[in-house]
Amino acid sequence: MSDKIELTAKIREDVGKGASRRLRRLEDLVPAIIYGGEKAPLSISLNHNELLKATKDERFYSQIITLNLGDKDQMVVVKAIQRHHIKPRFLHLDFQRVDAKHEITVKLPIHFIGEQDAKGVKEGGLVAHVITEIEVHCLPRDLPEYLELDITDLELGESLHVSDLKLPAGVKLTGVHDEEHDQPVVAIQQPKAQAEPAEEAESEAGEGEEAGEGEKPAAEGEQDEAS
Fold first, then answer.
1. How many angstroms separate the CA atoms of 115 and 151, rounded?
2. Measured between alpha carbons, how far is residue 97 from residues 39, 70, 113, 144 in Å?
3. Using CA of residue 52, residue 54, residue 58, residue 59, what is the dihedral sign?
4. Tens digits of per-residue pLDDT, 45-80?
5. Contact criterion met (CB below 8 Å) for 185 and 165
6. Are strands 147-150 and 172-173 parallel, antiparallel or unpaired?
7. CATH number of this structure's domain 5-98, picked from the four choices 2.60.120.200, 2.40.240.10, 3.40.190.10, 3.90.226.10
C-alpha cells in the first residue's frame, strides 16, 4: 500500500454556525467532526490548503486517514463532505473513527484494466462506465485501495457486471447483488455517430421505393386531409 494519508487537526471548543463561519473566514480553517465507536463526538478543525491538497489523492475518499491531534493520532475514514456550491471551498467534513477490531464500510473506486486493448474497442466500440465505485465492508487491515476489472476480452455489445469483480480476501460487497440485482459495471457500445447514418440511409431508401411507385405515402395523405 502507498504512503498513508495524514492531516494535522486541532480540537475546537467554540462550536456552532457562527464559530464555524469565523473559522472559515478569518483563519482559513475547515470545521469537522469525528464520531463513532464508544467515544463522544469530537469537534476539530483542519487547514483548508492542506485539506485541498489531500483531496486530490483518490485514496482520500476511500482509505484510512491519520489525523494528527497534538500528541495523539486518530485513525478515521471520510463519511461526508460539504462543499461551497460555487467556490472551491470546503465547508465541513464528517469523519468516522476506525477500530482495528470492527469492520468499516467505504466506497472503493473501480479501476478498469485493458481499455485500450479491449476487443470491442479495436472493433470501433466505445467504453461506457456504468459504475465507477462500489460500497464494501471489511476490517481495516483488509481494506484495498481499489478494485480492478479487466475488460481486455470484452467484445462490442458485451458488458461486465458486479459479479465479475474480484474481491480480495476479507472484503464483501454491501447491499444485494444476486442474479436478479447483478448491475452492469462497464460495457462496450457502438458509437451513435456510426449507427445513425445507417438508420437514415435505410429510411431514405424506403421512401425512395414508395415514391418510385407513383403513390403518395399514407401518412402524408392523412396530413393533407387533416389540413
1. 6
2. 9, 17, 33, 18
3. negative
4. 999 999 999 999 999 999 999 999 988 899 999 999
5. yes
6. unpaired
7. 2.40.240.10
Domain ranges of the chain: 5-98, 105-193
Give the CA diameter of the chain. Answer: 92
Cβ neighbour number for residue 181 with a 10 Å cutoff: 11
CA angle (19, 23, 29) in 5-degree steps: 145
CATH homologous superfamily, domain 105-193 = Ribosomal protein L25, C-terminal domain (2.170.120.20)
pLDDT beneath 50: ranges in the chain: 1, 210-227
The C-alpha cell at 200 is 437514415
Helix (H, G, I), strand (E, B) or coil at 94: strand
